[in-house]
From TrEMBL:
Belongs to the glycosyltransferase 2 family. It comes from the Bacteria. Residues 7-124 form the Glycosyltransferase 2-like domain. GO terms for molecular function: glycosyltransferase activity. InterPro entries: Glyco_trans_2-like (IPR001173), Nucleotide-diphossugar_trans (IPR029044). PANTHER family: GALACTOFURANOSYLTRANSFERASE GLFT2, RHAMNOSYLTRANSFERASE WBBL. This is Glycosyltransferase. It holds the Pfam family Glycos_transf_2. The keyword Aminoacyl-tRNA synthetase does not apply. Keywords: Glycosyltransferase, Transferase.
Length: 287
C-alpha cells in the first residue's frame, strides 16, 4: 500500500505533562507521521516551554497558541485550517491531549480506511435510535455507524476541504455528533474499528465537580442546537428522553438543584440560539 501522509492535529490546555506523554505515544507509532500540529488553547502553565523543547528534537512538531481557550472544536478548527493551508497531507488524525493511542493504532486506522473505503474512521462509534445511543462493538474489522468520537479519528483531507472542521460554536460537548451529521449529509462514509486501540484518561470528569455542571449545560445546549439544525421527529423524541433521563438522574446528586438549573439553562440557550463560550468552566459565570 502506498504510504500516505498523515498530519496529527492535537489540542491541549494547561496539561504540559499530559501532552508530553501524548507526544511520546505519537513517536512510538508504527506508521509514519508526517506532521504533528499541536494547538494550545491559551495555557497558563509551562505547556509552551515543554512544546518548544519537544520541537527542538522532533522537527515534525509545530504548535500555535490561540488568543483564548475556545474549546476542543475551536482548537481542531485552527489546526485543520493550518494543515490545509501550509502542509502536504492526505489525512488528519484528530486527538485530544489525554488520549494515548497504542503503537499500532494509526497503522490499523490507515489500513482500515483504505481497505474498506471509508472517509472518516474512528476508534469509538455509536448508533442512534429514537430512545437510546448504543455503543457499537463491531463484529467485523470495520463497521458503519451513525457517529464516532472524533478524538483519535482519521479523516480524509478531501472531507475537511469540503465540509470544514468541527464547529467552534459548540465550545465543548457534542462537536463529534454535529461533525458526523455534517459529513454524512455531504455524502461521506463514517466507520468504527473493531477494537479500541486507545487509552483515554478522561481527565476532569469527576463525579461531583465544576466539570459536571458546565458539561451538563453545554451538553443540553448543543444537543438543542443540533436538533434545530438537523430536525427530525426521531431526534426530537431522543432529545426529550435524554434530557429527562439526566434531569431525573440529578436528584440523587448532592448538588441536584444546581445541576438541574444548569441543564435547563442549556436547553433554553439552545432554543434561542446562543452559541460559543457562553459559560466559563473555571468560574461557572455566564457571559
Amino acid at each position: 500500500m502506498e504510504s500516505l501522509k498523515i498530519t496529527v492535529v492535537m489540542v491541549t490546555y494547561n496539561r504540559s505533562k499530559v501532552v508530553s506523554e501524548a507526544i511520546d505515544c505519537l513517536q512510538k507509532q508504527t506508521y509514519p507521521i508526517e506532521n504533528i500540529i499541536i494547538i494550545d488553547n491559551c495555557s497558563t502553565d509551562d505547556t509552551l516551554e515543554v512544546l518548544s523543547k519537544r520541537k527542538a528534537v522532533d522537527s515534525r512538531i509545530q504548535f500555535r497558541m490561540r488568543d483564548e481557550n475556545g474549546g476542543y472544536a475551536a482548537g481542531l478548527e485552527t489546526g485543520i485550517l493550518w494543515g490545509l493551508s501550509d502542509f502536504e497531507t492526505d489525512y488528519f488524525w484528530m486527538m485530544d491531549d489525554d488520549s494515548y493511542p497504542v503503537p499500532e493504532a494509526l497503522e490499523l486506522l490507515v489500513k482500515g480506511i483504505a481497505s474498506y473505503k471509508y472517509d472518516m474512521l474512528g476508534l469509538s462509534g455509536f448508533r442512534m435510535t429514537t430512545t437510546t445511543k448504543k455503543t457499537i462493538e463491531p463484529l467485523e474489522e470495520v463497521q458503519t455507524v451513525d457517529y464516532i468520537l472524533i478524538d483519535n479519528a482519521l479523516v480524509k483531507k478531501g472531507v475537511a476541504e469540503k465540509v470544514g472542521a468541527p464547529n467552534p460554536d459548540f465550545f465543548m460537548m457534542c462537536e463529534d455528533y454535529e461533525y458526523c451529521l455534517r459529513i454524512k449529509k455531504a455524502g461521506f462514509k463514517i466507520g468504527v474499528m473493531k477494537n479500541n486501540h486507545v487509552n483515554r484518561l478522561h481527565l476532569g470528569s469527576q463525579k461531583f465537580s465544576k466539570a459536571t455542571l458546565w458539561r451538563g449545560y453545554y451538553h443540553s445546549r448543543n444537543h438543542m442546537i443540533i436538533l434545530r439544525q438537523y430536525f427530525s421527529w426521531n431526534m426530537m423524541i431522543h432529545y426529550v428522553l435524554m434530557q429527562l433521563k439526566y434531569l431525573f438522574g440529578s436528584f440523587s446528586a448532592p448538588d441536584r438543584f444546581t445541576r438541574i438549573k444548569f441543564r435547563l439553562i442549556g436547553v433554553y440557550h439552545g432554543l434561542i440560539g446562543k452559541k460559543g463560550k457562553t459559560l466559563r468552566p473555571d468560574t461557572l459565570k455566564f457571559q
